[in-house]
Amino acid sequence: MDRPLHPVADRGPDPQQTAGLSPDPGRGRGGRHRGQSAFRPARLVAHCPGRPAPRARAGLHPVPRGRPVPGLQPARRHEPGGQGVRRRPRRRRRGAGVEQLRRGLAGTAGGPDRQSLRQRRHGRGDPSRPPDAARAATRTDAPDARPGQRAQYLFLGRADAPGGRPSAQAPADRGPDRGGHRPLQLAAARGSPMSGPPVPGPPGHPPSPREYPDWAREWALFLDIDGTLLELAPEPQAVRVPPGLAARIATLAQGLGGALALVSGRPLSDIDRFFPGRFDAAGTHGAQWRLGGTETAPAPPVDEALAGIVALLREGTNRLPGVILEPKPHALAMHYRLAPQWEAQVRSLAGRAAERLGPAFRLQAGKLVVELLPAAAGKGAAIRRFMGQPPYAGRTPVFVGDDLTDEDGFAVVNALGGLSIRVGEREPTLAQSRLPSPAAVRDWLEGLAAHSMRQT
Ligand SMILES: O=P(O)(O)OC[C@H]1O[C@H](O[C@H]2O[C@H](CO)[C@@H](O)[C@H](O)[C@H]2O)[C@H](O)[C@@H](O)[C@@H]1O
């Protein structure tokens, strides 16, 4: 089956994260190890000696090994591949905004319009250490950093992002997602030219409002819900929204001139129940979309096709006690958080349903859930769509998310020169920064809100 699938999650430190989907009804858990998928996981491709050097891709520039590169420090003794790291100013002028920061960094290599936020390190730490992305690239296991390789690969940001700023004319005709959804598996395996290779190391900390005094004028903020704003709960409807959170988000939205959207796998009806105020939102992983109160959704055939499959799934899940079927507008989710022993059966069932539905739908693995979604739906496409419209256009996208479904959003945000923040420990990720928990996200947002109120 060549239906596009998202990458399997490694069975890493996040016990809530699910693995890849099995479309093979005949092979249950016994057929392979736990966490092993019928599909290959996203592969991190490195250039190996002996193979012809890969062609230069947009944003990734092969440079002959050994040739000095302006703006790079020479390799240090502890860097096995001798890749060198990008030099960055040790100290940034206090109060430099996103744009100043980008320009300051860009001045070191590649010009002012070729540097993305991913090149900087967020938070405190040893100032002599290179930024996270560069530091990760010096690891022996980094995708583009191998001892003995003949070319070194330098991520120089997107050539088509003047000033690194997202543009209202976000180039839908360029890059891996071409304005629509593209599964991370493909992007990662081919080395997404827009986002650079996935960074396998632990990402840095997110910025504090003090570092970005102009955040309210510059950012477009996108927030995932489950596992990001809210702690996960045993069942979809058992989540608890902390008092005051919706008001805090409204304050932020106001501070941002309206450039804040909730981007969730939840349907808009859930989003509005948890966060009253009809915020801008992408619901059901982008299948529903709302800007300034105006909603758009996929054409009716999507729901008709799903209606034809619900009976099969209901019959199947009825035989799996504890498994929850969550029908949503334009999508269906099957949760096995309360009955993880049925994981293989749920995946098998979902795989059969996906085959019946055909290429208009795709499977999406999440945290102890498997979902059937319209093939074109994805958080990356939803964020890109917001970024093409006022008040988002011209701002720097910042996206906070936790799950596999959010990687698609991280890729787009990175490509637009923005900031991607992953919640929790799940690896690998394209996110540049990290917050440990939803509580930490809420604290971070509170810091931003307090800052914006002081400014206004
Ligand atoms: O994109 P998100 O906002 O993160 O939504 C993703 C899915 O969230 C919900 O499921 C997840 O959260 C539940 C409540 O904590 C949890 O019980 C479940 O195991 C998680 O997968 C929601 O029910 C789904 O519809 C969303 O797609």
UniProtKB/TrEMBL annotation:
SUPFAM superfamilies: HAD-like. This is Trehalose 6-phosphate phosphatase. It is an enzyme of class 3 (hydrolase). It comes from the Bacteria. Residues 1-13 have a biased composition (Basic and acidic residues). The keyword Transmembrane does not apply. NCBIfam families: HAD-SF-IIB, T6PP.
